[in-house]
Amino acid sequence: MLFRVDVAAAEPLADQIAAQVRGGIMRGDVTPGERLPSARELAEVLDVNLHTVLRAYAQLRDEELIELRRGRGAVVRGDADATRLRLVELARQFVREARRQGLAEAEMIAIMKEAQP
């Protein structure tokens, strides 16, 4: 998995890293049981502080997407794909309701963009 951070962005670096891992899990690019780069290795590659990566990994652990194992590093949880399934079901509910309300696809997309923080 390729990681990138934008140091000029308003979003904290740890949040950017966590979002990339989260997105990889949701897209299926990162699979359950897969080992993520060590915090030290990722910090070096991204040229960020080690604690920034540790904060990102802690966020993902708290969201129950990864496990942090001493000696093995960060590993994607076996049930992480369940999160993706929940999101797909929520999206289906949204689309069903939007269609019931007579919204076009472009209007649904506009609503999703509006919902972003």
From TrEMBL:
Gene3D superfamilies: Winged helix-like DNA-binding domain superfamily/Winged helix DNA-binding domain
GO molecular function annotation: DNA binding; DNA-binding transcription factor activity
Taxonomic superkingdom: Bacteria
The keyword Transcription regulation is annotated on this UniProt entry: yes
Keywords: DNA-binding, Transcription, Transcription regulation
Start and end residues of each HTH gntR-type domain: 11-79
Keyword hit for Protein transport: no
Record protein name field: GntR family transcriptional regulator
Organism: Actinoplanes aureus
Phylogenetic lineage: Bacteria, Bacillati, Actinomycetota, Actinomycetes, Micromonosporales
